Amino acid sequence: MPATSPMPDISIPQARRIVVDTTGAQIVQEESPATRDSRGIYLPHYIEPVSHIAIDIGGSLAKVVYFTRSNLPISTTPPQSGHSSPFLPPSESVFIPPFSSNGTSSSSSRHHESPSLNPHSHAPFDHSPPTRHPTLNGALTPGVLSEDYRNQASSASSAVRSYASTVSNHRGSFSKPHAGKYRRSDSLPPPLPGGLLNFARFETDNINDLIKFLQDLINRSAAVNRVSLEKMQKNVKVMATGGGAHMYYDLLRKELNVEVKREEEMECLILGLGFIARVPEEVFWFSEELVYKVSHTNTKDRPPEGEKLTIPPSELPRPSPTPPAYQVTFADANATDNVPNFPCLIVNIGSGVSIVKVDEDGSFERVSGTSLGGGTLWGLLSLLTDAENFDEMLLLSEQGDNSAVDMLVGDIYGSDYSKIGLKSSTIASSFGKVFRKGKAKKSFKQEDIARSLLYAISNNIGHVAYMNAAKYGLDKVFFGGCFIRGHAATISTLSYAIRFWSKGTMRACFLRHEGFLGAIGAWIKNVEPEPEPEIQSETSGGVDASLQRDVNGKAH
Amino acid sequence: MPATSPMPDISIPQARRIVVDTTGAQIVQEESPATRDSRGIYLPHYIEPVSHIAIDIGGSLAKVVYFTRSNLPISTTPPQSGHSSPFLPPSESVFIPPFSSNGTSSSSSRHHESPSLNPHSHAPFDHSPPTRHPTLNGALTPGVLSEDYRNQASSASSAVRSYASTVSNHRGSFSKPHAGKYRRSDSLPPPLPGGLLNFARFETDNINDLIKFLQDLINRSAAVNRVSLEKMQKNVKVMATGGGAHMYYDLLRKELNVEVKREEEMECLILGLGFIARVPEEVFWFSEELVYKVSHTNTKDRPPEGEKLTIPPSELPRPSPTPPAYQVTFADANATDNVPNFPCLIVNIGSGVSIVKVDEDGSFERVSGTSLGGGTLWGLLSLLTDAENFDEMLLLSEQGDNSAVDMLVGDIYGSDYSKIGLKSSTIASSFGKVFRKGKAKKSFKQEDIARSLLYAISNNIGHVAYMNAAKYGLDKVFFGGCFIRGHAATISTLSYAIRFWSKGTMRACFLRHEGFLGAIGAWIKNVEPEPEPEIQSETSGGVDASLQRDVNGKAH
Fold it and tell me: Which InterPro entries did the record assign (chains A, B) (predicted)?
């Protein structure tokens, strides 16, 4: 996440193929708002042949991704008592009861716990309570199970590959994978129950909480699978990325007593995006129509149906004291909007901000960054407000009016500065009203300060992102990182900044698992060993084209 | 100073020619550190044919520029008692005694008050005490003096024009103007005593202080010149620019009872730069050699003499917790570095930041801006520190260590992130160390907070400036505005940011009267009436080429 940086080429990552079958993938209903951005993802047609845990340790937060078995599709009724996976003793379930407010951990299969997802749901924007420690969920599948398991596992992974090809042969046929599958190989067993991709988050400061969580996960998995802890540890691998992967490498090895593999941060970011973008209802953005409506009360001058909107820059809504209501549009899982998403610009907003250019072939370069990121907002607001954590800060900002502290164009000119097209509501100087000789500090409300700072940082990131996207001719900008937290004001400000500066020619895209791109990428990297030639050809059509090639664009 | 803005064309300003003779111009020695950036400029060969005062009222500060007569060159001994200008009654002097600490007003001719300027003087970087109210200095020359004066004045202005042409006919001959002058027209009278360009600054909040200052100046000038206040008011004109020119237009007219003319902000900025850059020892920058030395302890791999330095980006010094010692290089008055300075990018940092692209012909466009400017630093530091004013905040920052609050690359990686060329001292996240659950707020020092915020804002402005300079292919970036205040850490950070991002291909330039560009431009605009044809031709070679043309580049 470093800020100022040169623009060197990054060492070329190895060719990667995603053979995780996303057919029928679903983001599970949340059992708690705290899991807003860390809901589990149910993968009905994937099982993991070897256990591993992926972690992405940033400057402020450590993100965890791991896969646990599931024995029922998310949209069916919960398991009957005693019912269990073929790999589990009847007495044990990989699912623990939902924990309504004491965790940011991932998923629950209890369908009745919450309403089902709606493509235009505002769920991603629910307020969230203070973050507490993630709670363990599910158990890993060790690579030391019975021969019986191995067979099924291997046939499963060939099933996975056949599914993968099916997916590509029938883009848009996510809902009826079996057609493809059985056409490909009737000899395969019926689909395995699949499982859940779990997400958890910790403060890097509390690294011991992370370690404890991982130890418990490993211990629990050993118990659930009735293997010794030693066997489990031998078979579990930790894929670590982010700066902390280097900082805490020795500590992790010593405390977990498992293999720890370090992966390059930027490469994992790109891989993570490539995978997660294939999950339905993961990618979303503000609709052009909304932006247009906001700047047009009447509709007479709307363009004909189907025509691209070209909104005059002067009519684009600007970040203002009171941003309009927002509305999300999810990428259509059946449209090419969903996969591939390259070329694009990825702006990862953690403690600091990294800006990465991704070409169509998946090759990438960290081209820019800024030190004004989440850490800046969190740090300053922890000095300026009583908020105890980021979620409280966001709640504060929602109740504030930045015009009480920001100097607007109208405050300087007494009106618009129409000569250069600036509206009187445009922010001329963030916190520009605060500096008053002898003015009492307590005369400024925490809420207003929080909102002003959120705008200032979001606007600035959007501005720098736009300049880089323009420089490299990219019209799609993905915003990731835990700074966003699915927060409406943040997303609207970033979206407006991109639209405003690009005069409506660029789109700002967001992700529901925005903070986990790096961790997901690290997890993907270990999903399967280096591919054997015949598998490559067999599956060549079956995976995201942008990940089917190496970063030089050489197809296999 | 507005922040986010579209990029429209700005209405074309009228053709302008500068006939103010800068021959022998000198920046007077300061009588107080408070005048660091507002020292008077002695113009031995210019007198003002008509009185006017220029003001630039921004969101936080109002800047004043006005010309008063002088009856002695700056570098001679002080006047004998009773000695006076031919236009003054013997009993009166236009100079008031130096005021050592109670003002930011401009100039004194008392040579012995301070050491004479040295091209490598650090004077511009002296600490300055809290700003207090400017003190009135000198008297205006009304357009209502005797016929005798009028004659001398008009012959003076023709002398001015002839000097102007001389200057250009002998670029680099600033030191011996008479040669040119007498060759041109032996009939002209010996040089007139000239006078002083005065600078003063007020907080926009205290607009009444500004009005009182202007009232006193007008009253005093009436008394000194023995004309009635009514006559003086009829003959004095106020040229107003900046947002406050609109906001306070009616107030100014009512309170001053003089004509108030509004001038466009961006146009004045460009005109002001075009004029001030012609003053010796006004423009300065960090030497390439210094930057190079900083990143090379040994000198073996220096390029041959005369060859342009191309410093590898990875070896460019970065903004770091402890920037190296700085050193200024003044533009050589005899070099083309001095005039013209176009094309260039002008980054004016006031409460907010305006970024203006200037073409070779002087045409310009406000292409960008950011709301993270001086107002942001002043506002946040007034909330976070006990500093009462900006100078105290700068003093605080000089005693601080930002690494106590900033998250550096080394804090995240435990080392350099060499894979993408980031040193461990690079700031990854401004204030990234502050956010600690339950950490006591008082555990952070005001000095460290001040330094961190100064770096954060300066880095960001430098970054955005670089991106715009690169976009428009400009290699010279002028930083103006009262944010800079000749402050070493600010100038070094801005310079490093430009060098770092541009890989040493761009130069950051600074000005000693950085905060007064707009006010100087407004003053210049009224220096003489619209030019008559013959004067144009007569002086066509005599002034800055960039100001000899209209903004479309059509030469006259």
Answer: ATPase_NBD, Type_II_PanK
CB contact under 8 A, B434 and A4: no
How far is Cα B104 from Cα B101, in angstroms, rounded to an integer?
A: 8
From chain B, pick out residues whose CB is under 8 angstroms from the CB of A262. Answer: none
Low-confidence ranges of chain A (pLDDT < 50): 1-16, 31-33, 71-131, 146-191, 291, 293-303, 308-327, 333-339, 530-556
B17-75+136-144+192-282+516-530 and B283-400+445-511 in the same fold: yes
Sign of CA dihedral A245, A248, A253, A255: negative
pLDDT tens figures, A438-459? 555 568 999 999 999 999 999 9
**Cβ-based contacts of A384 with chain B (< 8 Å):** 383-384
B235-254 pLDDT, tens digit per residue, is: 899 999 999 999 999 999 99
CA-CA distance, A346 to A479, in Å (whole number)? 6
Supply φ then ψ for residue A122, to 5 degrees.
Answer: -95, 10
The answer to whether B69 touches B47, Cβ cutoff 8 Å, is yes
- Tell me whether residue A254 is exposed, middle or buried, using C-beta atoms within 10 angstroms of its C-beta: 0 to 12, 13 to 18, 19 or more: exposed
Q: Which CATH class is domain B17-75+136-144+192-282+516-530?
A: alpha beta
Of B364, B268, B469, the residue nearest B10 (C-alpha) = B364
Instruction: Note the pLDDT of residue B368.
Output: 93
The Cα B439–Cα B460 span in angstroms is: 27
Determine the pLDDT at residue A202.
Answer: 92
The answer to whether residue A1 neighbours chain B at the CB level (below 8 Å) is: yes
How far, in Å, CA of B375 to CA of B348, rounded? Answer: 13
d(CA B7, CA B10): 9
Cα gap B161→B144, rounded to integer Å: 22
Residue by residue, what is the 3-state secondary structure of A396-410?
HHHCCCHHHCCEEHH
pLDDT score of A284: 83
Domain ranges within chain B, ordered by starting residue? 17-75+136-144+192-282+516-530, 283-400+445-511
| Closest chain A residue by Cα to residue B499 | A6
Q: Using a CB–CB cutoff of 8 Å, tell me whether A470 touches chain B.
A: yes
Partner residues linked to A341 by β-bridges: none
pLDDT of residue A193: 66
Find, in chain B, the residue whose alpha carbon is nearest to that of A432. B375
Contact A429 B59 (CB under 8 A): yes
Higher pLDDT among residues B24 and B308, named by residue: B24
Q: Does B246 touch chain A (CB under 8 A)?
A: yes
- More confident call, A82 vs B337: B337
Taking only residues 90 to 129 of chain B, the set having a beta carbon closer than 8 angstroms to any beta carbon of chain A reads none
What is the SS3 assignment for B434? coil
pLDDT of residue B100: 26
* Tokens (6 digits) for B126: 């002296």
- Residue of B541 and A143 predicted with greater confidence: A143
Architecture of domain A283-400+445-511: 2-Layer Sandwich (3.30)
Task: State the pTM of this model.
Answer: 0.74
Using 50, 70 and 90 to split pLDDT, how confident is the model at B175? very low
Which of chain A's residues have a Cβ under 8 Å away from the Cβ of B319? 4
Alpha-carbon B144 to chain mean position: 31
**Can you tell me the mean pLDDT for B272-285?**
86
Whether B352 and A60 lie within 8 Å, measured CB to CB: no
Q: What integer pLDDT is reported at residue A435 of this predicted model?
A: 82
| B321 in contact with A, Cβ within 8 Å | no
Q: Is-cis flag, bond preceding A2, omega within 30?
A: no
Cα–Cα distances (Å) from A312 to A291, A430, A502, B6, B241, in that order, read 11, 25, 10, 10, 29
With an 8 Å Cβ cutoff, is B130 touching chain A? no
Kindly state the tokens that stand for B432.
Answer: 């990234």
pLDDT at B406 over 90: yes
